[in-house]
Design goal:
By secondary structure, the chain is mainly beta. Helix content is about 15%, strand content about 40%. The chain starts with a helix and ends in a 6-residue tail after the last helix.
């Protein structure tokens, strides 16, 4: 009887050890793509989303583009393969939006159109085209300039054609200022106009009229 009890305890311990083994998966290695979320170790049932580079697509495409950690490893096995002339998601344009509803795959010669967000100016063509598995050069959205009251006050200037204390100016445009009462343009200031370049104004400077005649003695 004691031998039988020992055997039962032995096999029950084996059964317990088998069921207590933890199923884990290491981070997958994916050529031409990446995945989210990124961790060093995953557990049974964990899901990751596959993000293939432009010109590549997830295979096999299960619609969700996700794989699961199982006792046999990642299922299905994640892999990014070439589109064969087709394109993936259009490139991201900072401070810009796609007018069309984006698709996961585009065929050759298909196009998408971009627009810049408010106060940004587009440089380049608003339309990109899928060509040989790659997108043509996307546009850039250049930041606008802000002329605000604080920047103008420290220079003793104000907007010439506006009573507002702040304006937004698109890249490449020109804004004209005037000196406040009791001030004149600084001798080093060539013009009271300023161009908006890469989101910044090159503001003109001024100085008090009572010091204007002493500028040669400073």
């Amino acid at each position: 009887y004691s031998n039988l009890l020992s055997l039962l305890l032995f096999f029950s311990n084996i059964r317990y050890d088998l069921f207590s083994l933890e199923i884990t998966c290491n981070s997958p290695r994916i050529s031409n793509g990446s995945f989210r979320p990124q961790r060093t170790l995953y557990h049974d049932g964990d899901l990751i989303r596959i993000l293939c580079d432009s010109g590549f697509t997830f295979e096999p495409d299960n619609g969700e583009k996700v794989v699961e950690c199982t006792r046999n490893g990642w299922s299905p096995s994640p892999k990014c393969v070439t589109l064969g002339g087709k394109c993936g998601l259009p490139p991201v344009v900072e401070n810009g939006d796609i007018l069309d509803s984006p698709k996961p795959i585009y065929f050759p010669s298909e196009t998408v159109t971009y627009q810049c967000q408010n106060f940004y100016t587009m440089e380049g063509s608003p339309r990109v085209t899928c060509q040989n598995g790659h997108w043509s050069q996307p546009p850039t959205c250049r930041v606008a300039c802000t002329a605000n009251e604080e920047d103008m006050r420290v220079r003793n200037i104000k907007l010439r054609w506006s009573n507002r204390d702040k304006i937004y100016s698109e890249d490449g445009t020109t804004v004209e200022f005037v000196c406040l009462r009791g001030y004149k343009p600084h001798p080093n200031t060539r013009s009271l106009r300023a161009n908006c370049v890469d989101g910044k104004f090159d503001y003109p400077d001024s100085m008090e009229e009572k010091h204007y005649g002493d500028r040669g003695n400073t």
